[in-house]
Amino acid sequence: MFKLPEFPAYYGVFDKLGWLALRLAALLVLVFLVLPIVVIVPLSFSDSTFLAYPIEGWSLQWYREMWNAPEWGRATRNSFIVAPAATLIATVLGTLAAMGLARNKFAAKGLITGLLISP
Q: pTM value?
């Protein structure tokens, strides 16, 4: 089922365990992030007022109500306008910063790089 790759001869047991632990941690994070989406999205198409599996009937009722409610419709439309603009601005600024940091050497390069990659 799962086969470890062939490691170079100088890899020790701890190197191999570290490789495996990293992949396992990445898989757990992926499951932690994706599982709620896999559960909630099908429930959003349910015609029931309660969250319950198995889904008995399929409907777009909740999406219709969201678009028809003035506060949700306005917020959703604003998100569809702001998100592409923010993505474009962040991409341009990030690309320019990466080019500037990669091509130049200056005293505060490490500090600026640290600030830019910090969450």
A: 0.50
